[in-house]
Sequence to fold (751 residues):
Amino acid sequence: MNKALRNPLIYMLFILPAFILFVAFFIYPIVTAVNNSLTSWNGISKTMTYIGMDNYATAVQDKIFWYSARNNVYFILFSCLIQVPAIVFFSLLIANVRRLKDLYKTAIFLPSIMSTAVIGILWGFIYNPDFGLMNEFLGLFGIEPVYWLSDKNWAMIAILITNAWQWTGFYIVMVLAAILSIPKELDEAAAIDGATGVQRATKITLPLIMPIISVVVMLSIAGAMKAADIVLVMTKGGPAGATDVMATYMIRYAITSFKHGFGNAIAVLIFLFTIIITVLYQFLIARRTERIEY
Amino acid sequence: MKKSLVLLLSLIFVIMLAGCGTSGNGNKPGSEGQQTAGNGDQGGKTNNEPFEITIRHTQVGESKKFRLALLEDVVKKTEAAVPGLKIKLDGVDSEVNRKERLRGEMAAGKPPEIFDVMGSPDAELYAKEGLMLDLTPILEELGLTEKFTTLVPFTHDGKIYGIPIGGSIEGYFYNKEYFEQKGYQVPKTLAELDDLAAKIKADGKFPFAQASKDAWIPLMTTNNLWSYYGGPQITYGLKTGESKWTDDNIVKGVAKHQEWVQKGYFKKGELGFEYAHMRNQVITGEAVMMMDGSWANSVFRDPAQAGDMVGKIGYFNMPPVNAGDPVVVMQDANNGYGFSSAVAEDPRKLQVVKEFIRNMWTEEMQLRGLKEDGVLPAMKMDLDQMKTVSDDPLMQDIFRAVSEIGTSFPAFDALVQAEVNTALSTGIQQVISGDIDAAKMLENVQAVQDAANSAAQ
Fold:
């Protein structure tokens, strides 16, 4: 048996199932997408005509595509600059709650288990210009009704708020787990030394949970790059394409128009942009926060 | 030991791979080109073994409950006629079916045996790829070929690939009670419609209900407007290059729509409203008129949906530019059922298709659809016969509107490429939001049209 386990072939056989799954569900779709992106395939036909890089040229020369990409950037910025600080803040609050901690955890996690369609309808009511909660609230301060989902100046921010509401709870539970895994002695020692709650949070807890915050940021970036469902449910990319992101651009201008070759080119571009941004984030920021020693 | 372990693991993987390799029946619809329906004869043998087929329909939700009941009756009759048959009904939202489910199934070469499909451009593309059953011989056998108002949206290279389930016209639903209270008459010209809208606006109501989250809704108004200014034939020439989106008359139609938006004839924020919101504006009395397909009558005749407004809603065609000019109306039959070409390979399934067609497209069913659901017949039918089906005042208004039609035309999206439809859909929302004027928007659409026409060549 020991001899058998010293044979590299045996190990290769053991990794074969995972390797087959990896190739079948990751490598093969990517290769297929890249191949299709070089064609004028209509999505139905059994024959494909290769047109080189034309689909990529069409995409990068289309200002509407870049407008959609800009909306993805808004998703990333909103996640990193507003959502992540809020996640950390609420995680710290909940971690220090003495009573009903589980209730808070469950309540805050609930939106992330709701379907996006339900959330779209729910927030559709909240944003309703006539009787929506948002305008009712703003009305208390004498502010005129805002047409949240039909005004191009507000539609994107309305989607970003809803998206943040949906996923904040999920990330809070992750960060909370990291906070609760920090040895209590560290916090107690700091408290004995006279550190205040804010000091312990910023000087002890925060540095120790940086790896998980880094993961949250990376997941947010990946989520922002592939965002589509929340946009489709709330505005369908409207008004007049104002909330289109790259994925909804792909659906609107390629898939619904039977231009699957072009659609695959957009999908490949989304994949490449996501890889580039996450790799840059990993090299520039995340690597510095990976190692934590208590 | 080592050899045994390697052999054992190898054996496991060979079995696994063999299992993967033999899955599926290798039945590739359309792989032998377009399938033509045969006669389904099984050589005299009766096979009563249970089998199942799927019907993908879009009769989902409260507003389509009558149409679903009609389909269920047809299913029962078909099941009774074919021994061993079990029909599985698969209901999906029409947009989801059209743009996602059916398209994905077509790409995989495995559509359901019977499915809801739009005639143009969808059915044409699927037929071209050999994925839809050629119904020409079946319709001839059943004596139905000449029975329809139009089969053009489902005809490709002279063969028929689908059958419309109903017809529709587009026009204005209006608050009859309000008109009577104010002493307003149904307008005879576009100028009269304009004046009427101004008076309604001055009265503190919205002249027109509109919900433009889905662009096809405002485009009903725009399509009818440009067809009046430029004539209905102008849209036919766009695909061939004989006419242009930048034609002054099309620009005039779009500009008129934008003018109505700028005058506040539609509720502010309508770019974010769903289709149902538009009907609610009429039901609540917030808006007075609404451009919609004649199918919407089912909502206004249903107390559960329209409440007190039942019996208070009327219907008229968009009036012509000049008094006495022929009435030009969008009249369509682009939605219907298609059948998988794979059905031709199974005589029992082919028999199901024939029975389904035999039971679905009868005068009785068409009149029932008209009576219960308010869907105009797709089959040719005498107007007086239609009038006897329903004494509902709204239906009588619609029948009158049908009788007034001078020239009808199909919706623009049945006449242009899908990408042109996408460009116009975005464009009309830009026009409504005031981002762009009609001329500039149509220039953009023409650029897409030129590219699509070049690609087709």
Remarks:
- Chain A has 14 helices and no strands.
- The mean pLDDT of chain A is 89.
- Residues 129 and 147 of chain A are 5 Å apart (CA to CA).
